[in-house]
């Protein structure tokens, strides 16, 4: 039986004009994950990513640490939802830059509220698919892995939304649980599914084996 390793991208540029760019710390997280796996002797038979820049940059860092040259299958269905479009759908007034703890928490409270309404079909954020279409893209990626890579190790680099949707799909979680999982996934965290032709099974969720050492304690980030 193989294993699907789902990795959330490294720390991006939260609060900047362009979020879709790894920070220096995000790059370090990705390289460190690859180094950890190389020390474990782990190899991958296939690699899947979304098409966002932070996905590609995270894979580049992992590949550097692993000392490999991957040829990923890029799937738009593994791309993240548009959090700003979600928030605008329920809060039309401009928001202050979330540069204080209070504004940061307010930003994510609004996002969770918007996610719940989107998943329930109450809102249709501009430029975004429906929740069913979004979840369908994630489901298609999981089906591809199950049908083509059973018995192999597969690396999948994506974002918190698709990864939490994948866990929700495998476990059959309620929408509010899927949202709660989404909010807890850390940068460069690893979630593992066992792969068989008939189904995927959750093995681990949101782990950071590459950052367990004391010297990496301040490398743990969420945004």
Q: What is this structure, in a nutshell?
A:
The chain has 7 helices and 6 strands; from the N terminus they run E-H-E-H-E-H-H-H-E-H-H-E-E. It has helices spanning 24-40, 53-66, 83-90, 101-119, 131-148, 160-171, 175-184, and strands spanning 2-8, 46-49, 73-74, 153-158, 190-195, 200-207.
- Poorly predicted ranges: none
Average pLDDT number: 95
Our count of helices gives 7
The termini sit apart by 33 Å
The portion of residues forming beta strands comes to: 5-15%
**Rounded Rg:** 17 Å
Order of helices and strands: EHEHEHHHEHHEE
Tell me which CATH architecture of one domain applies here.
3-Layer(aba) Sandwich
Major β-sheet, in short?
A: 6 strands, mixed
Write down how many β-strands occur, each being a DSSP E stretch of 2 or more residues.
6
Descriptive key words:
223 residues; alpha/beta; Rossmann fold; six-stranded mixed beta sheet; 7 helices; 6 strands; 44% helix; globular; Phosphoglycerate mutase; His_Pase_superF_clade-1
Tell me what you see in this structure:
It comes from Acidovorax delafieldii 2AN. The protein is of the alpha/beta class. The chain has a domain at 1-77 and 150-165 and 187-209: Phosphoglycerate mutase-like (Rossmann fold). Helices cover 44% and strands 15% of the residues. It is built from seven helices and six strands. The protein has helices at residues 24-40, 53-66, 83-90, 101-119, 131-148, 160-171, 175-184, and strands at 2-8, 46-49, 73-74, 153-158, 190-195, 200-207. The relative contact order is 0.21. The model has no long low-confidence stretch (mean pLDDT 95).
